[in-house]
Structure formats: structure tokens, C-alpha cells
């Protein structure tokens, strides 16, 4: 979002963790990991002429600043009393947001992803190693089809890993640990198919569009926002592991690499996402779809941070 907004000529002030790099008009790196101290840091450094705040974290939106502020949820609902709620899928907006707010899909920068039309003969699971992500189901699909499976991601549940994953590791099924950067892009681009076996209500499913951007078909269950993201490619949706295995066995029935890439580019690129948010920004500012409150945490914190005069003229 930052890069695309700047490319279009907008001024962007980015608040982020130390070590972050961007082409923002100015990047402010947090001096602390404590949310209260981060809020104070933002209050001290936020330019006075900002038109709108887009908060992905929640600490600013919950403080209710006297500036139109979006609170974007990348997971479930937003319980706090905030001005404007935005969710990453219509599914989450309906189920957890009770239809109060807006939905804007995630977008990725297409040029960041390697595209390959010729694939290698392995399946890929990419994500956290927890029960809800269904790694054990990806293993089941691999065994049903006799295909190699590469598992990549952070190990977040050791008990789950030791009982449901580790016993199956070997020549056919490999765990390569957390991946990022070029290695992640190569794994996505070379896979014959990505298995998205989540069993919980995924808010969106970023791996879905990362795979498609790489020209790789991704098979997913109809859970959460998955059906919404893959709405234009219904052949990629599955009900069971048996159905998923059947589709793995007949790859010619799946969308081609170029169709996958085109689908991601026309629906889930950073350009599409930025277009959507700019329309929403303008709507919020023009129609004043927000309420400015006086006695808010933001105003109370700001008052405490104001320098006080000692009356001595120094």
C-alpha cells in the first residue's frame, strides 16, 4: 500500500518497527514494543495536516484521534469502539463484523513473485504448523496420490508436529522449516500444486493469491474467505481430501499457469487493492463517515505529552 500510494504521488507517513524500509515520505521507526509507548510516539510525530489514518494494528483507531481513521482487521472482528471498520473479506465482514464496515481484499505486488509455466512434480504446503491449518490433511492428500510433499512454515505447535507430522516425514514428505524471500518464491513457482488445507474460517488466505501469482494452482477447502478468494476459479475448491486428491491426479483439469497468474493480477494485485482504498478514503473524507469525539484516549494522552510552562520564561 505504501509503495503504490507513493508511486501515485500521495504523501505517506509510515509508522513501523525498527529496520523497516520503504519509499514513504517519511518512515518513523518505533522506539519501543510497548503499545502505549508506540501510541505516544505516534501522537508526538504525526504531522498536523494528515487527511486520513489507516491503522493495521489497532492502537491508533482504539484511541479515537480527531482525524478520520480506518481500523483494518486482518483476522476476525473488531470489538473496540472505532470510527471505520475494514475487513479483508466480505465473509469476515458478515460473520464477525455484522455487516458494519467495509471489505477490501488483500493485494500483492505481482513483480515480487516468480512466474513459471513448467512445474516440478511436488506438492507444497505453506503456512504455520498448527492443527487449524490442516497440515495433516495435506499429508493425507500426498499419501493418497503418491506425490512428494514439501511442508514449509513456522513450527507453532510442537505437540501437533510430533504426533501428526513428524511420524510421516521421510523421502516422500519433507519439512524444510520457515521460508521467505527467494526460497519461498521458488518453492511456490516450481510446485505442481499448493495445498491450502485450513479447517478454520480463514479471513482471507494470502497463500492462495501468492500461489496463483506464481502461476501455480492452489486447492482449498470451502472454509472462511477461501471460497470468496477463489470464486472465479471454482475448480480449485474442494470438499474433502479425496476430492482434493482427485484433482491432484488430473492436473490438466486445473487452470493453466497463465490463467492463475492473470486471475491474481486482475483481482488481487497491489494496484487493485490501492484503487479500492483510494475510493474508500475519498468516500470517508467527502461524506464524513466518522465521528470526532472530544474526551478520547488520544486527546488525553496528547494533553499529557504537551510541554508545560514553568512560568520562568526559560
UniProtKB/TrEMBL annotation:
Residues 116-231 form the Glycosyl transferase family domain. The keyword Glycosyltransferase applies. Transmembrane segments: none annotated. Keywords: Glycosyltransferase, Transferase. The keyword Hydrolase does not apply. Coiled coil: none annotated. SUPFAM superfamilies: UDP-Glycosyltransferase/glycogen phosphorylase (SSF53756). GO terms for molecular function: glycosyltransferase activity. Its EC number is 2.4.-.-. It is an enzyme of class 2 (transferase). InterPro entries: Glyco_trans_1 (IPR001296), Glycosyltransferase_grp1 (IPR050194). Pfam families: Glycos_transf_1 (PF00534). It comes from the Bacteria. This is Glycosyltransferase.
Amino acid at each position: 500500500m505504501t509503495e503504490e500510494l507513493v508511486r501515485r504521488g500521495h504523501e505517506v507517513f509510515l509508522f513501523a518497527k525498527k529496520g523497516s524500509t520503504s519509499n514513504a515520505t517519511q518512515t518513523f521507526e518505533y522506539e519501543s514494543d510497548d503499545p502505549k509507548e508506540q501510541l505516544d510516539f505516534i501522537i508526538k510525530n504525526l504531522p498536523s495536516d494528515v487527511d486520513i489514518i489507516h491503522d493495521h494494528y489497532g492502537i491508533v483507531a482504539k484511541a479515537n484521534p480527531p482525524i478520520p481513521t480506518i481500523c483494518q482487521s486482518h483476522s476476525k472482528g473488531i470489538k473496540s469502539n472505532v470510527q471505520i471498520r475494514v475487513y479483508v473479506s466480505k465473509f469476515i465482514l458478515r460473520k464477525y463484523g455484522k455487516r458494519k464496515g467495509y471489505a477490501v481484499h488483500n493485494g500483492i505486488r505481482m513483480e515480487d513473485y516468480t512466474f513459471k509455466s513448467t512445474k516440478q512434480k511436488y506438492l507444497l504446503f505453506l503456512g504455520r504448523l498448527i492443527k487449524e491449518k490442516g497440515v495433516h490433511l495435506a499429508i493425507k492428500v500426498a499419501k493418497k496420490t503418491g506425490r512428494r510433499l514439501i511442508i514449509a512454515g513456522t513450527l507453532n505447535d510442537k505437540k501437533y508436529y510430533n504426533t501428526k507430522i513428524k511420524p510421516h516425514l521421510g523421502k516422500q514428505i519433507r519439512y524444510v522449516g520457515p521460508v521467505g524471500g527467494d526460497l519461498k518464491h521458488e518453492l511456490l513457482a516450481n510446485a505442481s500444486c499448493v495445498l491450502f488445507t485450513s479447517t478454520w474460517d480463514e479471513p482471507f488466505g494470502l497463500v492462495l493469491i501468492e500461489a496463483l501469482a506464481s502461476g501455480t494452482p492452489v486447492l482449498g477447502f470451502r472454509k472462511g474467505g477461501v471460497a470468496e478468494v477463489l470464486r472465479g476459479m471454482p475448480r480449485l475448491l474442494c470438499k474433502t481430501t479425496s476430492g482434493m486428491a482427485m484433482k491432484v491426479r488430473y492436473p490438466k483439469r486445473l487452470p493453466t499457469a497463465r490463467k492463475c497468474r492473470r486471475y491474481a493480477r486482475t483481482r488481487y494485485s497491489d494496484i487493485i487493492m490501492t484503487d479500492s482504498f483510494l475510493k474508500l478514503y475519498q468516500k470517508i473524507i467527502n461524506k464524513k463517515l466518522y465521528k470526532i469525539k472530544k474526551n478520547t484516549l488520544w486527546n488525553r494522552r496528547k494533553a499529557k505529552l504537551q510541554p508545560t510552562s514553568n512560568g520562568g520564561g526559560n
